Every structure is written in C-alpha cells, then in structure tokens.
Amino acid sequence: MAQLKAARVADVPTLDVVAPGLVVAAAAAGRRGPRGRFLVIGHRGKGMNALASADRRLQEVRENTVRSFNDAARFAADYVEFDVQVTKDGCPIIFHDNFIFTEEDGKISQRRVTDLQLEDFLQYGPQNEQGKTGKPLLRKMKDGRMLNWNVQSDDALCTLQEAFEKVNPRLGFNVELKFDDSLEYQEEELTRILQAILKVIFEYAKDRPILFSSFQPDAAQLTRKLQSKYPVYFLTNGGTEIYTDVRRNSLEEAIKLCLASGLQGIVSEARGIFRHPAAIPKIKEANLSLLTYGTLNNVPEAVYMQHLMGVNGVIVDLVPEITKAVSELIAVPEPDPEVEDLSNQAARGGATPNFSQREISFLLRLIPELVR
User: Fold this and answer.
1) Beta strand segments in the chain, E
2) pTM for the full model?
3) Between β-strands 99-104 and 107-112, what pairing exists: parallel, antiparallel or unpaired?
4) Distance CA 108, CA 101 (A)
5) Distance CA 60, CA 148 (A)
6) Helix (H, G, I), strand (E, B) or coil at 360
7) Digit-coded pLDDT (tens) for 260-306
8) Cβ atoms of residues 72 and 172 within 8 Å
9) Furthest-apart CA atoms within the chain: distance in Å
10) Do residues 221 and 261 touch, judged by C-beta distance below 8 A?
C-alpha cells in the first residue's frame, strides 16, 4: 500500500485544467450542506493496521481493540467502526479477518475465526492477565505474504461486550456485521448470528449512538427486520469491484436495496462516489444518509470535496489528521456531550473556506488522479 499523506492543497503546484461545470456543481452542494453534522468515523478504531505500508501511522496501535477505540476518542471522532463476528459458542467478538494465523512449532497454522470457541480466540495475541503470553499473531497479506502482526502499541483482542464496558461512552459505534464473501448463509444461520449480536447491544448500549452496516445484503435486510431502534446501512464498493450478487455491484443497486428493505443509508467506497457523482442526488432524493470509506478519506482535500458533494461523513484511518482538517475546513457547532444519532440529525450547514481559484483548480484535478 502506498504511503498515505495528509497534505494541504496550498503546498502543491498549480494544475490549471478545470473540468467544465464542476465548480458550479460543487458550490451548489456546499450551499445545501450535508444532512446534519459532518461525521468522522475511525476505521477499526484509530485506523486499520497496514503492516506492509511504509507509513508508520498505520501500525501505531492494534486495530479493533479497546485501546484503539479509546485513542480515537481522544480526538474529535464521532464514531468508531469495527468488525463483529460470532464465535462457535455464540459470543460476538471484534476481529476483521475471516481467518486467524499463528506460528506453532515452527509451522504456520490457521483457524476460521467463527470456528473458534471464545476461550480459544482470546488466547491469541497480547493477554490482559499479567504475566500470561498469548499465541503470536500473524497476518496474511493480499499478495500471500505472511507478516508478524507487530504494532507500536499493542492490546488484547476483545469481545463486543468489553467494547461497550471499556470504551469512552461519548463515542458512537458503527458495528459492521462481518461475513465471509466466499460462504453462502441461510436465513436461519444469519438469524442466529445477528440475534447473538443484538442481545449484547440491547443489554449494554445504553445511550451510546449505534449504527449497523454490512456488505452482506441479506444480513442488512434481516437486521432491519429484527430491530428498528438503530439505523442499518448497506456497505458497497460502489461498482469498483464486481460480485456474483448484483445487489453489490453499483450505487443504483444499493439504493434499490435500501428502499426495498427500509434501510437508512449507504456506506460506499469513496472512489465509487467520485466515479459516479450523479448517484448522490439520487441517494438524497431517496432520503438516505451517505457515508464513505477507503484510502481517499485520508486526504483532507478529498474529504472536503465529499462534504461539498453532500456526503454525510467519512470513515478514516488517519484520525488525528482528518479530524483536525475537518475542524479547519468545515465549521461545525460544538458537539453535544452525547454524539448525535445518525437516524435523527438536525440539518446544520458548515461554513465554506475561502479557497483560491488556484486551489480549486488543483482540487478538481486531484480527485480524478486519486480515483484511478
């Protein structure tokens, strides 16, 4: 993965070509403003671990842990996003990958996370119990390499219940319902998994803002059927990748799914939004909220362009840098002591910074280059 940078446009040389009509469209979106407060959501806490990256910020603290969540809370993050799976004995745990790897007797072993009992899962990595050493954690890269999962600030793996009990209560939770794309799930199995997660949430959430999201269309629909208290968002790559299930292949299909199932919003890969900006007014006309994720969201200018386009919030890895950039670029009221619930936001516009024509020209050239 290329090194992620948080650079200001004023520091970059002029790019003179401006796409016709884009300035007018962006200005109009800025006048409308996004629905409610523009949200910054920490990806897997303070940011995902990209072990192969040269950017050391992506290896600061172990992702999807209590420490990472609380580190994000030190900044102006509104929510943290994390991945929930359910162990074989029915306990919701927080872990992104489908398989967990370790080295035993000089050999690499792998187990499917959902085939583990809770006791077995918690034996991996750092241990909360003083003096106890867990199994070393390895991580498999997309290119097949196996790397030691080393970070600067480590922490134990955790359950969903622990997150509710130990994370700053002002921080909202974006609970991604994690399923393996290579498996087919029957409704009975999905129901069992989702009910285990909902049981913990209804018992421990209290006043904490919650939203659900999932790439699995049936799981998103079923979550909406099983409860109506918290909003459910459909996760999509926005057409940047193609799947057998056509519901996952475009923003248009995502809108259809949300409308047919009573879902409250869409979470799209940011590139999907930049490649298909005409989808945004359709999403707004459908009265849906729109969040984005992806490495583009670690670039302040790309985040600000999304604000102008009408996006409601971004999921980011560089929480300190992007929260700071958002506070400088987008004037918002002081947050309430308790974070607003996405399902019931009041419309409040942000002030538009005075970008020069030189900076606007750069922005309009920057985005297509980044989207490639």
Assistant:
1) 39-43, 79-86, 92-94, 99-104, 107-112, 138-140, 146-148, 158-159, 172-177, 210-214, 232-236, 265-269, 289-293, 313-316
2) 0.84
3) antiparallel
4) 7
5) 14
6) helix
7) 999 999 999 999 999 999 999 999 999 999 999 999 999 998 999 99
8) no
9) 64
10) yes
